[in-house]
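Title: Comparing notes on inverse folding

I've been comparing how different people in this forum approach sequence design from structure. To keep things fair, I'm posting one structure and asking everyone to reply with a full sequence. Here's the target:
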């Protein structure tokens, strides 16, 4: 274990291995690739496409589209529909497509959320172009315009606007909250227009209708949402709804096509006639697989597609869409895992009338099943009969799923796999039996990207899919001839904020859009690199006055000619020397910045910043919850507490910035995990190691004070590959009177056991709830007095006297709750709302518990049946808490995030 300090930004610390410190440039994982920001003045760009003659089209979230030639954006926009667009939240002008015959007809298509005032009042005397109404019910719309061929498609012909879909409130796609609406607009090989659309459900609760943060009531009043579709996320399984779907339409009329799987000849403009695929939560991006599909639009073969579905807070998905009518699992599945929160909701699907006497309609849960390895399925109805085939939904699993880096630790990347019973489950990409050669990564919003069909990159990169994630990476997938993933490679590590990835057919260069930085980035192979800065400073901190020397003589040019230097000091003074000394003074602790610009003979520039922390010393950091060389178990996912002793002479502890990171080291390389900024937290370690390859985890804590100094402490955790010292058998659980009783036996000699830890989970992320010392007895028991409502999954963790541990099997108890509840918003800044429908009319108590299990607040509502409590959490520190609703013997425990 090594303790050291240095002065730099947090971003530099966490991504030093991957990101070059150069303005307008970043380094790809592979050598000889140049990543550069183009000099453009953009405002919230979200996407870019290219015509086959190299003309680029960049669209902004607020409703402007710009054209670009030779990496130079034109002075005036192709079109500006900001007056019509609702760009609040995740909304805006999201999709853009060029007609396959664009160079002949000039047609381009826009896909966006309509401002409510424009939707309801445009064309009437009540309309005011200065008025904008957001956060209310509205629709999404697809419109077509014509670019003017006479000026090389740089402007739009007046009067060419045509609404393809969404001319009226009743005819549009419902917008019911601040996200989950338009996705990608794309033409198939056959000339049909395809569009993905979100489920319109709440992202603050598990929405089965009437979610508090949706506009469902207003939407039903306006005719935007038919009442039978007020079923939240379950709309993604209704053929009559456009939500949660990929739609396939005639680009001239907006009608569904006869070759669609659920086409209704009596109503070609219905959503049912337009649906091509189902079961998406928020399929923001999809891309066509090259050389798939047929040209006859009547054949129903637009092509095969790679679809990215953005998860709720657990898993991101990339899926293969091969055939019409496929169901991709939402809301019952996310990634390869079940979303148990949508089970047992007993929501009838109005599209599935039953001939059986026991129920009028089938529930959504009745008509779906997970994929099985042998592909044999039994669709037994609750009444004892068989559910009709036309109602049956079989989960189409993703090709690849990765965990949400903020809300679903640990970092995991899964591929398709099956358990011993042939039931679909997620298999780690690094598992020895995994069919995919890849690495573990996490994200937050999938971007399917684009296929490289060009020869600008090195030959080995040809034909591969360059995909990414909003949270910040571009990686590369290699497919086999059946579009199975065979390999995943890293390519570029980025900052959070990417929204689109595409190739320019005319040059073969890769471009990606960065929303937060308002940048368009260009990736090329080879070419001329800007200058390489190699510079040093003699000191990083110290008391005033502090003399520091700066030396950039080792910097070098990548072209012929000399370099020029420009140092800008904190007071604005400019120094144009390679080497100089400067004395910094201050009366108080202060962080000062010096910037260096190096210019080569052809005008290319590189930039670097240096920091001085004056009158300051770095924090003292020592990780205490684990020791260097501690082991982890190879049986189950490991939960490791992360705590440290930290002090700083100039900064209070509450003002320090903590950054925990866990890296998986594999032979000579490593895979970084996300950063956790809590002072105390947990690490989740997958059981890898004990094979021919060398695995271990590196735990890193970086603490930064308020004046810019950082200290890093780190240690390694190794897999336990020794003999078993414990065999826990007969772990069982039963539930009675609000208590779960656990019983187990220890089958090996007790001399090897020090103590047991009892762990519990409702989402397969296990947390310690108790500890028992080992004794001479063989049988043990423990009572859990605070079980969750829903699944309670238990396991025992047995420790030896050296700190190594092994796991028992897992047991599950599922507890139903007769009280309906809603908790929002989550995450919460100040006020959280707790809504309870108390069917039992018994006394209800609301308890707030911190991560250590300490009860920090209790509320006893005065109402008996309809309970609505607003709880002020403004005085709570940021972190994870639990809200427990106690209603007689019922207990419901909900995890919340306090920002």
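Reply #1:
Here's my take.
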């Amino acid at each position: 274990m090594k303790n050291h300090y240095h002065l730099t930004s947090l971003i530099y610390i966490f991504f030093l291995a991957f990101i070059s410190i150069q303005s307008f440039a970043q380094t790809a994982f592979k050598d000889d690739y140049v990543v550069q920001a183009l000099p453009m003045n953009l405002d919230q760009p979200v996407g870019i496409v290219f015509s086959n003659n190299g003309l680029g089209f960049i669209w902004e979230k607020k409703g402007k589209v710009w054209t670009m030639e030779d990496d130079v954006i034109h002075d005036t926009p192709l079109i500006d529909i900001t007056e019509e667009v609702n760009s609040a939240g995740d909304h805006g002008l999201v999709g853009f497509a060029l007609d396959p015959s664009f160079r002949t007809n000039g047609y381009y298509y826009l896909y966006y959320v309509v401002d409510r005032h424009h939707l309801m009042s445009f064309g009437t005397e009540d309309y005011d172009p200065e008025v904008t109404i957001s956060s209310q019910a509205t629709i999404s719309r697809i419109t077509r315009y014509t670019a003017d061929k006479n000026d090389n498609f740089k402007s739009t012909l007046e009067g060419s606007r045509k609404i393809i879909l969404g001319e009226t409130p009743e005819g549009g796609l419902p917008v019911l909250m601040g996200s989950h609406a338009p996705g990608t607009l794309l033409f198939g090989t056959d000339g049909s227009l395809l569009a993905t659309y979100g489920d319109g459900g709440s992202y603050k609760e598990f929405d089965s209708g009437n979610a508090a943060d949706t506009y469902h009531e207003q939407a039903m009043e306006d005719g935007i949402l038919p009442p039978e579709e007020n079923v939240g996320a379950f709309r993604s399984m209704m053929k009559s709804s456009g939500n949660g779907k990929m739609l396939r339409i005639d680009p001239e009329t907006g009608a569904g096509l006869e070759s669609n799987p659920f086409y209704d000849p009596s109503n070609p403009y219905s959503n049912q006639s337009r649906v091509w695929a189902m079961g998406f939560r928020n399929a923001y991006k999809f891309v066509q697989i090259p050389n798939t599909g047929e040209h006859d639009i009547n054949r129903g073969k637009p092509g095969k597609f790679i679809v990215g579905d953005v998860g709720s807070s657990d898993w991101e998905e990339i899926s293969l869409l091969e055939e019409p009518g496929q169901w991709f699992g939402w809301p019952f599945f996310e990634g390869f895992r079940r979303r148990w929160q949508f089970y047992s909701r007993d929501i009838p699907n109005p599209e599935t009338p039953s001939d059986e006497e026991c129920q009028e309609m089938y529930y959504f849960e009745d008509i779906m099943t997970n994929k099985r390895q042998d592909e044999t399925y039994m669709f037994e109805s609750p009444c004892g009969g068989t559910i009709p085939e036309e109602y049956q939904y079989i989960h189409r699993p993703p090709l690849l799923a990765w965990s949400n880096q903020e809300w679903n630790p640990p970092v995991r990347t899964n591929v398709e796999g099956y358990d011993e019973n042939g039931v679909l489950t997620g298999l780690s990409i690094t598992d020895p039996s995994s069919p995919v050669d890849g690495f573990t990564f996490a994200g937050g919003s999938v971007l399917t990207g684009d296929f490289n069909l060009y020869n600008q990159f090195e030959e080995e990169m040809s034909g591969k899919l360059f995909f990414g994630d909003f949270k910040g990476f571009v990686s590369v997938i290699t497919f086999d001839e059946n579009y199975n993933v065979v390999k995943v490679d890293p390519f570029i590590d980025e900052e959070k904020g990417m929204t689109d990835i595409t190739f320019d057919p005319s040059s073969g260069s890769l471009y990606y859009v960065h929303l937060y930085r308002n940048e368009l980035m260009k990736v090329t192979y080879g070419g001329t690199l800007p200058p390489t800065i190699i510079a040093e400073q003699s000191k990083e901190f110290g008391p005033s006055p502090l003399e520091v020397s700066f030396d950039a003589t080792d910097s070098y040019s990548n072209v012929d000619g000399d370099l020029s230097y420009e140092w800008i000091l904190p007071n604005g003074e400019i120094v144009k020397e390679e080497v100089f000394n400067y004395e910094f003074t201050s009366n108080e602790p202060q962080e000062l910045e010096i910037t260096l610009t190096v210019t080569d003979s052809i005008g290319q520039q590189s930039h670097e910043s240096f920091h001085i922390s004056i009158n300051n010393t770095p924090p003292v950091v020592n990780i205490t919850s684990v020791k260097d060389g501690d082991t982890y178990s190879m049986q189950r996912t490991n939960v490791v507490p992360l705590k440290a002793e930290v002090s700083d002479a100039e900064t209070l502890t509450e003002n320090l910035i903590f950054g925990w990171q866990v890296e998986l080291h594999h032979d000579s390389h490593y895979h970084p995990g996300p950063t956790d900024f809590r002072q105390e937290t947990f690490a989740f370690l997958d059981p890898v190691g004990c094979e021919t390859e060398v695995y271990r985890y590196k735990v890193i804590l970086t603490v930064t004070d308020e004046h810019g100094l950082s200290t890093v402490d780190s240690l390694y955790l190794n897999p336990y590959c020794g003999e078993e010292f414990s065999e826990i058998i007969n772990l069982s659980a039963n539930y009675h009177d609000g208590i779960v009783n656990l019983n187990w036996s220890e089958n090996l000699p007790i001399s090897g056991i020090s103590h047991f830890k009892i762990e519990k989970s409702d989402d397969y992320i296990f947390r310690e709830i108790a500890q028992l010392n080992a004794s001479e007895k063989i049988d043990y028991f423990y009572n859990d007095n605070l079980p969750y409502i829903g699944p309670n999954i238990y396991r025992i963790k047995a420790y030896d006297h050296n700190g190594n541990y092994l796991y028992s099997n897992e047991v599950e108890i599922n507890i139903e709750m007769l009280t309906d509840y809603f908790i929002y918003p989550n995450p919460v800044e100040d006020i959280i709302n707790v809504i309870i429908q108390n069917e039992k009319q018994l006394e209800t108590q609301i308890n707030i518990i911190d991560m250590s299990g300490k009860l920090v607040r209790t509320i006893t509502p005065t109402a008996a049946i309809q309970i609505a409590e607003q709880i002020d959490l403004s005085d709570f520190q940021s972190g994870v808490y639990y809200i427990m609703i106690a209603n007689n013997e019922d207990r419901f425990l909900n995890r919340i995030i306090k920002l």
